[in-house]
Design a protein that fits this description.
By secondary structure, the protein is of the alpha/beta class. The chain has two domains: 2-61; 71-203. Helices cover 41% and strands 17% of the residues. A hairpin with a 7-residue loop joins strand 2 and strand 3. Helix 7 (143-158) runs parallel beside helix 10 (221-235) and helix 10 (221-235) packs antiparallel against helix 11 (248-259).
């Protein structure tokens, strides 16, 4: 358990000798010089504090389960995603919040995209320390998942949570989505992902970006159904990015073209 706590902190950019300063709970440098010393200080309040601070599962820290990060699934539930963003903002009003959507860059059937939110939880010197929220369950080529993902991106933007786009192999995305990979990247954050950049917000602004890579299905049903669902979600207020301009006419025209 002590080794996991040290690994957790270091993955997030907190050096062993910086743990007392960042974690608190009356820890001293002497307490973190070796695993045996750390283990002697691990009580319930400290363990619960560390899990909450880094948003990781207690079962993993206990060594009882391989899954480190909770999985948050907002497929078909954009209103729950909005509530989630609001709760994060409320609980940490001074922390910045941003994110990345990882899209598969290979043609693997049913490959999923992954949304990871990155939240600032403090700093050591000039280095920000982050925690991460894994939002999985987005089959990227499926029209329904694409529409709900676009809605969540729009909701995030409306909350001034800006989501960036990267591409990665489907198997790498799947490993991250499982929650069994310790996120942190030694404090470098989510910007370490991928080479190709794209703009997820375009899915709520441009029909061509929204439809790109969607499985058209038989007789282009997937394209028509995706556009129709986009329009339904826009009608319910979920596609508003806060930019002051509606994309509805463009999507209405695109649906008419595919329906003809």
């Amino acid at each position: 358990m002590a080794a996991r706590l040290i690994r957790l902190c270091e993955a997030h950019g907190v050096h062993r000798n910086q743990i007392p300063r960042f974690v608190g709970h009356a820890l001293t440098l002497q307490d973190v010089q070796d695993d045996a010393s750390v283990l002697a200080k691990l009580d319930e309040p400290l363990l619960e504090h560390v899990c909450a601070r880094f948003a990781i599962r207690r079962e993993w820290l206990d060594g009882a389960h391989a899954q480190i990060h909770p999985q948050h699934r907002f497929y078909k539930s954009p209103q729950e995603f909005s509530a989630f963003i609001t709760a994060l903002r409320s609980a940490n009003p001074n922390g910045s919040l941003s994110g990345v959507v990882l899209a598969p860059n290979d043609h693997v059937p049913n490959a999923e995209a992954l949304l990871i939110l990155q939240e600032t939880i403090g700093a050591i010197g000039e280095r920000s320390i982050y925690r991460y929220h894994v939002c999985d369950g987005w089959p990227f080529s499926y029209w329904k998942a694409r529409a709900y993902l676009a809605a969540c991106i729009a909701i995030a933007w409306r909350h001034h949570v800006y989501i960036h786009g990267r591409c990665a192999p489907a198997d790498a995305i799947a490993r991250l989505a499982s929650g069994t990979t310790l996120l942190g990247w030694q404090g470098e954050g989510i910007w370490t992902f991928g080479m190709k950049q794209w703009h997820p917000e375009d899915m709520a602004l441009r029909p061509d970006a929204f439809l790109d890579g969607i499985d058209p299905e038989e007789n282009h049903f997937g394209l028509r159904a995706g556009l129709q669902l986009w329009l339904e979600l826009e009608r319910d207020g979920f596609m508003e990015l806060g930019l002051g301009k509606s994309a509805r006419p463009l999507f209405t025209q695109a649906l008419a073209r595919w329906a003809s």
